[in-house]
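Project outcomes to date are best conveyed with an example. Our students and postdoctoral researchers have been running inverse folding experiments weekly, and each run begins with a structure described purely in C-alpha cells. The record below, which covers 281 residues, was selected by the lab manager from last quarter's runs and is presented without edits.
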C-alpha cells in the first residue's frame, strides 16, 4: 500500500510539474528569456518520466531518485536568475522537498533530503562560496511575480487536495477493512463457541459411552459367570447320573431289549451334554 501511494503521488506531481513547466515555457517564449530551452527540456523530461513510471511501476524509487538529483541543478539555476529569496523559487523548493518526503523512503529519502538541505544552506549562508546573491530584487519581474505566486498557490492547493483525497480514500478503505475484520472476528468467536459447545457434548457423550460400556461389560461378565456355572453343572452334576447309567448298562449286557433303548437315549443325552459343553467352554 505504501509503495502504491508513493507511486501515485509521484505521478500526480509529475503531471503538476508538466503543467507548471508549460506555464513557465509560455512565459519564457513571450519574454524571450534565456530559460526557454531549460523549461522546454524540463517539460520533456517530466513527460518521459511520467511515461516510464506508468509503463514500469517497479521502477518508481529509481525514477524518483533520478528526478530529484537532476532537478537540483535546475533549481539552483532558477534561484540565481530569479532573485533567490526575492523570487518564487524558495516556495517551489519547499513544496518540492515535501514532494521528496512523500515519494521516497528509507536511506534514499535521507540521502536526497541531506543533499537538498546542504544545497539550500550553501545558497543562503555562503553566497561568497557560490557566487550567487541570496536576495537580488533587481532581476525580479514585479509584474510577473504576483501571477507566479498565484499559479504556485494553485499548484499547492491542487497538490494538497490530491493528498487529502488520497489519504481520505485510504482511511475509508482501512475503516472498511476494520469492519470486515470485526465481522470475521465475531464469526470466528461464534464458531469457537460452537466448537466448545460441541466439545462439551462430545465429552458428555464419551462419558456416557464409557458408563454404557462399563455396564455392558459388567453384564457380559455376569453372563459369563452364569455360563461358567452352567458349564460346571452340566459337566459334573448333570452328566454324573448319565455316566452312572452307562456303568449300570455295562454291568448288564445280557438284559432284555428295553435296556438297549435306555442305552440309546442315554447316548443321545450324552451327545447333547457334550455339545452344550463345547459351546459354553
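After processing, the design step wrote out the following sequence:
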Amino acid at each position: 500500500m505504501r509503495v502504491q501511494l508513493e507511486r501515485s503521488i509521484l505521478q500526480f506531481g509529475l503531471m503538476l510539474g508538466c503543467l507548471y513547466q508549460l506555464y513557465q515555457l509560455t512565459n519564457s517564449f513571450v519574454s524571450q528569456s534565456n530559460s526557454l530551452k531549460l523549461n522546454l527540456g524540463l517539460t520533456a523530461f517530466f513527460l518521459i518520466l511520467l511515461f516510464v513510471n506508468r509503463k514500469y511501476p517497479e521502477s518508481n524509487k529509481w525514477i524518483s531518485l533520478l528526478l530529484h538529483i537532476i532537478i537540483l541543478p535546475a533549481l539552483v539555476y532558477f534561484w540565481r536568475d530569479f532573485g533567490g529569496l526575492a523570487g518564487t523559487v524558495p516556495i517551489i523548493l519547499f513544496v518540492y522537498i515535501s514532494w521528496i518526503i512523500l515519494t521516497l523512503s528509507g536511506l534514499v529519502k535521507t540521502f536526497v533530503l541531506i543533499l537538498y538541505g546542504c544545497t539550500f544552506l550553501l545558497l543562503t549562508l555562503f553566497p561568497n562560496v557560490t557566487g550567487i546573491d541570496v536576495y537580488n530584487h533587481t532581476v525580479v519581474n514585479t509584474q510577473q511575480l504576483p501571477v507566479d505566486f498565484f499559479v504556485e498557490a494553485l499548484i499547492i492547493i491542487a497538490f494538497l487536495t490530491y493528498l487529502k483525497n488520497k489519504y481520505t480514500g485510504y482511511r475509508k478503505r482501512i475503516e472498511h477493512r476494520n469492519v470486515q475484520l470485526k465481522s470475521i472476528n465475531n464469526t470466528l468467536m461464534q464458531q469457537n463457541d460452537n466448537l466448545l459447545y460441541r466439545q462439551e457434548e462430545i465429552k458428555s457423550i464419551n462419558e456416557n459411552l464409557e458408563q454404557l460400556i462399563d455396564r455392558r461389560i459388567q453384564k457380559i461378565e455376569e453372563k459369563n459367570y452364569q455360563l461358567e456355572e452352567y458349564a460346571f453343572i452340566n459337566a459334573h452334576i448333570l452328566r454324573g447320573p448319565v455316566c452312572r447309567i452307562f456303568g449300570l448298562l455295562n454291568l448288564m449286557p445280557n438284559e432284555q431289549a428295553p435296556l438297549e433303548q435306555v442305552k440309546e437315549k442315554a447316548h443321545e443325552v450324552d451327545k447333547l451334554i457334550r455339545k452344550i459343553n463345547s459351546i459354553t467352554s
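The chain has eight helices and no strands. The helical segments are 2-31, 36-55, 60-81, 89-103, 106-125, 127-130, 145-251, 258-280. The training component of this project remains on track.
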